[in-house]
């Protein structure tokens, strides 16, 4: 990304232009650039926007905004977590901003969370500039590993109840997390009856990629489902989640557990509940027809 596009004072604009979403752009007005450097792996930018609060962009693609991050974090975390009867050990691949970790740790059954993030700069930048996301990095249940998630999984067979992949798009450092070799490693890293959740792109823009991903997942998991949520700052305003289970009897479309009333005040959920969980698996006709045949 050209740094000159974001280096101006108030009134400058950030425009998301990427080969991942050709022929379109989403723009936000910048009030102040807070951080902008290139890490070992990617361009890392944090800025204060006029209408979406603080924004994290990697290689020119928006990852989170303060205004709508909860829609993505809550769904990618709680769809699998509430579908498992007792998720004691959880692995997060990616998620260096800390949002998925924040949500996973709300589940009392969790004893250990291992997080494998390839880019240490994303973690440190989030701690400094995105406290609404990174507040759980000091939690005693967390074991943070800086490294490649693909390589990490090779050495941890049959270890996790739930694995959540919170990746950027299938270019750059996250490219290996969208192929069949990765899905095989996920299956091997699960304990019996374990579950997987993957960032699943947009049915409006990446339907062929989603079809390929779900077809590859079905080679390693007996149950594979696709869900979605609305996130205004993501391309097309929609993002998907691929849910996989090693258990034939898993029914993702209804949560296995529910939030008890005393927890509601402390969990601070703004998007997810049991009704939204069920509704997330209802797809537009064009999407359901394509993905049911993948």
UniProtKB/TrEMBL annotation:
User: One Pfam family for this entry, by name?
Assistant: Spermine_synth
Query: Where is the PABS domain positioned along the sequence?
Result: 11-246
GO MF annotation terms: spermidine synthase activity
**Is the keyword Kinase in the record?**
no
Q: Which UniProt keywords apply?
A: Polyamine biosynthesis, Transferase
Q: List the GO biological process terms.
A: spermidine biosynthetic process
Q: Which SUPFAM superfamilies is this protein grouped with?
A: S-adenosyl-L-methionine-dependent methyltransferases (SSF53335)
InterPro entries of this UniProt entry?
PABS, PABS_CS, SAM-dependent_MTases_sf, Spermi_synthase, Spermidine_synt_N, Spermidine_synt_N_sf
Q: Does the keyword RNA-binding apply?
A: no
- Active site: residue positions: 166 (proton acceptor)
This protein's GO cellular component annotations are: cytosol
What is the similarity comment for this entry? Answer: Belongs to the spermidine/spermine synthase family.
Q: What name does the UniProt record give this protein?
A: Spermidine synthase
Specify the species. Hypsibius exemplaris
């Amino acid at each position: 990304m050209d740094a000159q596009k974001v280096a101006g004072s108030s009134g400058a604009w950030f425009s998301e232009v990427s080969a991942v979403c050709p022929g379109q752009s989403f723009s936000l007005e910048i009030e102040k650039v807070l951080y902008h450097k290139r890490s070992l792996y990617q361009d890392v930018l944090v800025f204060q926007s006029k209408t979406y609060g603080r924004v994290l962009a990697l290689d020119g693609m928006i990852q989170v905004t303060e205004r709508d991050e909860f829609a993505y974090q809550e769904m990618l975390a709680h769809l699998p977590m509430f579908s498992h009867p007792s998720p004691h050990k959880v692995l997060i691949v990616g998620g260096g901003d800390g949002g998925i970790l924040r949500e996973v740790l709300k589940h009392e059954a969790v004893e250990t969370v291992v997080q494998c993030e390839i880019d240490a700069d994303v973690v440190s930048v989030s701690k400094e500039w995105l406290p609404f996301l990174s507040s759980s990095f000091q939690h005693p249940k967390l074991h943070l590993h800086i490294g490649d998630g693909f390589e990490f999984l090779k050495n941890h067979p049959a270890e996790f109840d739930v694995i959540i992949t919170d990746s950027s798009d299938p270019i750059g450092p996250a490219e290996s997390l969208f192929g069949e070799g990765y899905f095989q490693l996920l299956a091997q890293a699960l304990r019996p009856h374990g579950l997987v959740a993957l960032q699943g792109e947009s049915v409006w823009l990446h339907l062929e990629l989603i079809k390929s991903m779900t077809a590859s997942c079905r080679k390693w998991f007996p149950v594979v489902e696709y869900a979605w949520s609305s996130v205004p700052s993501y391309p097309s305003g929609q993002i998907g989640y691929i849910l996989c289970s090693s258990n034939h009897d898993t029914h993702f479309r209804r949560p296995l557990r529910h939030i008890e009333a005393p927890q509601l005040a402390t969990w601070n959920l703004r998007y997810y509940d049991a009704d939204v969980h069920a509704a997330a698996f209802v797809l537009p006709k064009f999407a359901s027809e394509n993905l049911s045949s993948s």
